[in-house]
Amino acid sequence: MIDKKIFKCLRGDESEIALVQEGLKIDIRISKIYEALFTLEEMREVFRHALPAGLDDSEEERIDEGLKRLERILDEIRQQKGNRLRYVSDKIELRTREEEFINIDPIQAGGRLTLDARKALIAYGDGYSVCDNCLKPFRLDKIKKPPIDRFHDELAAFLGMDEARVVPGARRGFQAVVSSLVERGDPVLLTSLSHYTEFLAVEESGGVVREVMADENNIITADRIAERIEEIERKDGKKPVLMILDHFDYQFGNEHDVYGAGRIAKEYDIPFLYNGAYTVGIMPVDGKKIGADFVVGSGHKSMASSAPSGVLAVREEWVDKIFRTTDIRGDLTGRKFGVKEVEMLGCTLMGAPLLTMMASFPHVKERVKRWDEEVRRSNRFIETFLKIKGNRVLSEMPRKHTLTRVDTSASFDEVAKTHKKRGYFLTSELKKRGITGVFEGATREWKFNTYGLTDREVEYLGSAFIDIAKKYGIEVEA
Amino acid sequence: MIDKKIFKCLRGDESEIALVQEGLKIDIRISKIYEALFTLEEMREVFRHALPAGLDDSEEERIDEGLKRLERILDEIRQQKGNRLRYVSDKIELRTREEEFINIDPIQAGGRLTLDARKALIAYGDGYSVCDNCLKPFRLDKIKKPPIDRFHDELAAFLGMDEARVVPGARRGFQAVVSSLVERGDPVLLTSLSHYTEFLAVEESGGVVREVMADENNIITADRIAERIEEIERKDGKKPVLMILDHFDYQFGNEHDVYGAGRIAKEYDIPFLYNGAYTVGIMPVDGKKIGADFVVGSGHKSMASSAPSGVLAVREEWVDKIFRTTDIRGDLTGRKFGVKEVEMLGCTLMGAPLLTMMASFPHVKERVKRWDEEVRRSNRFIETFLKIKGNRVLSEMPRKHTLTRVDTSASFDEVAKTHKKRGYFLTSELKKRGITGVFEGATREWKFNTYGLTDREVEYLGSAFIDIAKKYGIEVEA
After folding, report:
1. Which reaction does it catalyse (chains A, B) (predicted)?
2. Do the Cβ atoms of A333 and B213 come within 8 Å?
3. Domain harbouring B284, CATH code
4. Is residue A18 less than 8 Å (CB to CB) from chain B?
């Protein structure tokens, strides 16, 4: 057992002191792996300033020192000992959330990097790293090495669409479509469960939001969409110029009738943007089958990529509108700017985040095929979770997604009322058990996401909740 | 000497075969450092799927295997032997440009990551990695851990402005300002040397571009700006609603009269956006002293950060306009979205690129103080370069920047005319000497950037050009 004071001095994190107190030891090897990674980066730095002719004596010495330090670190890993590294650099703490905990954060699950993505990040971190071989016509999606051009083709095919572009986040995909289609005062159809970034995109364009209300089960139905369109046409004097529907919303993770929406969109001749922030990259999405004109996905939410990243895919008939190339010219010089696309502002996602998308992509293509298993595990966890008396699920049941909203007002919140840590007792108890991602202090309504967890992790997670309930005398069904 | 065929099989890169032929050996340790980094990532991956309770036997075995592999790699580093790693992952090649070469690419110099930025990238690669401690009011620039809030304050102070936001690239900074100020048909003052992304931002807004022509020395002067504003007012019936001036342009790296422009902007009461893509992060910039209303910088161009990243800083009086918070609400639900900023689309630069900006920032703050040395080295290289008969500098002289445009039509292009590799002979000869970044095949007009090179690298670079000139019988001044 490490002395509490020493531990605090080394790390200063109360929750981990608790971990040590509970006997759930943080594995020192995680910190040591970081130390070794950083030492190798220091050695790499030597080569970055060396002459091509070779290292000089002092540089050779630094490499030697690096090797020696690595040897010591490998020894510490073998012996599972040594001090913990606290900082990446001045003021920036080491991040070990994914290594030390089971993370059920509602938005982080699908954006964890794959091993290949982390390797790509190491290799392609420098600013304009993907531009080494940028040749005519000088546009990101035309670069062949690394194979960015092919990746774009594969992305479009993956989404069942005709053309795709990477963008710095799904929100930038919404912005590009809205900016192309919506004029001041135009009605845009969103829903009562739409993500705020859709609202902001409409606000920036000067458009007017018209919501479709979810039904009593918090589902957006095709009937309601059709009714609302007719109402808007009656009241505003014109149909919405665009409709945006989240396949699964961020509040409940409920599935909305995107196929029905696709049908309605065609019937009323309204362009349809499918928001796949919670689907593209974790479950199969076929834009044309859905009847979408535009498909937007998020790299950092669901495609195992670094932020900010995302994809905007469109059907053939929209390519000239959304991906229109520049038409402007210098009024005196007559300068023109070739094939640069206006809404993309030229190149969009040079560098590191794009490479993480590309490196993760083969794995993403495979993992969407296993979506059923993810949903099964989600339901399996919920089943355990509901054994705790008072726990309720606010999302649709059975779950069709791994993101779920729950209400523990009648269970954990009852404990919080008299606990000295108040609502923080729950997150604290979870952390002691190596679980993180629940909003700090939340004991009433909160969300979690089991995406990417294995069977044994889901089982562990369920046991942890049962264990906490029992510890505080909450009744648990056998 | 490695056999040519084997080398080609291992790496497949003609230019490097040439390197080996010339006896300039690529240091195998660079590739081995990558192998070790990747092996550590594989070990890290084990912990990412382990239960908090600890590793099981098969996981322990994988850690052991990793340790053994690392031992072998360290041995290979010591003995400088072993095979070269070619790929990061399927289809994505290893990138060793910065380690193996002196890179004088015109756009890559200022965006090379610092050691601390590379460490931060390793730790914060996962999608929403900076959102672990996102609390009310839920906005990126308010996050305290990692210290993103303080970074924003420091950024504003660093630029001599009042408020700053990070953005996914300088172009997104232009877009935010233009979208806030420019209505359809409004004239916007750019110059004959403006970057294309400024044109695209104006095009997206529906504005009209009006250029100021550079003078005979390719400099934008205050007089010309004033004249042009008066002409626009006469002809268009209104003044420009915005003027954008690049402090140093991307074509010549010439300095334009931003202080004069600041004066004119005030005199004519026109908002002034200072484009510091080639200054912010490499030389001191004081926005208020310049008289700028907005300062835009690029993380991946000049702040040692991963793409896409940048900064938009504004003066107090513009905060409410450019960083206006959302006003839109759901027409049925009445939903509102708090302090989210419209032009930022909420949060802008979550994750990896932001952390590289933050980790590099202390170094960036120091390096701008050494700008004079950078300029001195730039001029020192030019001096050597001009000893080669026929070489000309198209940028202003003496150089005030490290980015320079040259014309070698009367020297290297003469060689290219009869060389079997044509224009590629020059880049090939440079690569043999461990130098990269000159546009492949260019022997007439081309650009380079010496930013970040040490004295000895600049000396080596000069010698290499002299050496190539002599090899091909071009006259060289003693």
Report:
1. O-phospho-L-seryl-tRNA(Cys) + hydrogen sulfide + H(+) = L-cysteinyl-tRNA(Cys) + phosphate
2. yes
3. 3.40.640.10
4. no
